[in-house]
Write a structure and sequence with these properties.
With 385 residues, the protein is an alpha/beta fold. Helices cover 43% and strands 14% of the residues. It has helices at 6-9, 14-27, 49-60, 73-83, 95-107, 123-130, 148-154, 177-189, 213-216, 228-231, 250-262, 268-279, 283-305, 332-342, 368-382; strands at residues 33-34, 90-93, 113-117, 137-138, 159-165, 194-197, 222-227, 240-245, 309-311, 319-324, 344-345, 347-348, 358-363. Bound molecules: pyridoxal-5'-phosphate (PLP).
Length: 385
């Protein structure tokens, strides 16, 4: 028997972990509705054609070499233009996931941390654990708006940066401009940089005062993370980037360059697709968001009708973080497993941090019919049938 490393024991990804159990039940004949993973493709959504055309064209041309480690120069230029930074401030990564990995490696020594919002996309907790530092979160209020007093309280001598995910995964919350300005003020006061996760930047479902951190960060250094995955409906492309705004100094960028060099490069054809995405029209956003609004209507109506469930209306992304107000289940895992037996896969809320109570995250990407089918099963279970 070969034992895995202690380091590997620190790795988990609850969004996919639950699928192992779902597949087992599927083999026993239970038909599953997968509401666990934020991938639009299985529900019929496709990347814009001009993006896939550019990828195909690149595959026909000579893009079979290793790309420059820090990214295709034309892509860096396009990103720099969008972000309002210099080309040297941009590093292209294999999805934003790799960008997050590199940021932890570049910023966080053992014993240090990046202060995470609660709840937060679980990759951040995993990377924090792998950095051997204290996992620490700042909370939010009952509407999922960050709690600024708690943020202040949680900043410690070990904090290296503050993470902001807006729109948020898993809550779908679009933060108010006022809240973001307060976060910038606190970061400025404590001389901490901000990591702005913009994975869902274009998936804003309502008229709102959404503002991107890059527009309001004043003299606080921020690093913006983005990717083709959600904003251009192309998660399989595995291309993203991080862009440094403000006064970070050259040492961090040198560290990022070395992190990029050691893994050689990101798939070049896909990077050419990202260039087309940034230069091309954004019509897909309107169509995608219109579809998502229809599906969110089903979510809000059905949750509203089911006694014991509560949800704050998601204003962006395609997730809902649903609270289970019932003491029939002792934990979120017990709830999620009971629901699995009914044929619905959701992610237990504790996968996103120590949220207390029973929550689950679901996507509202499925069609109206599929969502209604899943809610029929959820309703049945909540009624004790
Ligand atoms: C908030 C957030 N950040 C980052 C990522 C990573 O995305 P990718 O690596 O596909 O760009 C995701 C993926 O779901 C996400 O939800």
């Amino acid at each position: 028997m070969i034992k895995p490393s202690m380091r590997s024991e620190l790795v988990s990804y609850p969004i996919r972990d639950i699928v192992v159990e779902a597949k087992r039940l599927e083999k026993q004949g239970i038909k599953m509705a997968y509401l666990n993973i934020g991938d639009p493709a299985p529900f019929g959504f496709r990347p814009p054609k001009h993006v896939t055309d550019a990828v195909i064209e690149a595959a026909r041309q000579n893009y079979s070499a290793y790309a420059p480690s820090e990214g295709d120069p034309e892509l860096r230029k396009e990103i720099a233009k969008c972000e309002g930074v210099g080309e040297g401030d941009v590093f292209v990564t294999a999805g934003l996931s790799e960008g997050i990995d590199f940021l932890f490696q570049a910023l966080v020594d053992p014993g240090r941390n990046i202060l995470l919002p609660l709840p937060a996309y679980p990759l951040y907790s995993t990377k924090q654990r792998l950095s051997y530092g204290p996992l620490d979160f700042y909370g939010c209020d009952e509407n999922y708006e960050p709690n600024i007093d708690d943020l202040r309280k949680k900043i410690s001598p070990y904090t290296r940066a503050i993470l902001v995910i807006n729109p948020n995964n898993p809550t779908g919350k679009v933060y108010s401009r006022k809240t973001l300005e307060k976060i910038v003020d606190v970061a400025g006061e404590y001389k901490l940089p901000i990591i702005a996760d913009d994975a869902y930047e274009h998936i804003i479902l309502d008229e709102s005062d959404y503002v991107n951190m890059r527009k309001i960060h004043k003299d606080v250094p921020i690093v913006s993370g983005n990717s083709l995955s959600k904003n251009f409906i192309y998660p399989g492309a595995r291309v993203g980037y991080v862009a440094f705004h403000g006064n970070w100094g050259e040492e961090i960028k040198d560290a990022m360059q070395r992190l990029c060099n050691q893994r050689l490069s990101v798939n070049w054809e896909m990077q050419r697709g990202y260039i087309a995405a940034l230069r091309g029209p954004m019509d897909h956003v309107k169509a995608f968001n219109a579809e998502l609004r229809k599906r969110r209507d089903v979510l809000m109506r059905r949750v509203g009708e089911i006694e014991g469930l509560h949800v704050v209306k998601p204003g962006g992304a395609f997730y809902a973080f649903v609270k289970v107000e019932s003491n029939r289940w002792k934990s979120d895992w017990e709830f999620a497993r009971a629901l699995l037996k009914k044929g619905v896969v959701v992610v237990p809320g504790s996968g996103f941090g120590p949220v207390g109570n029973i929550y689950f995250r679901m996507v509202f990407l499925p069609s109206v019919e599929q969502l209604n089918g899943a809610f029929d099963k959820i309703e049945e279970m909540m009624k004790g049938k």
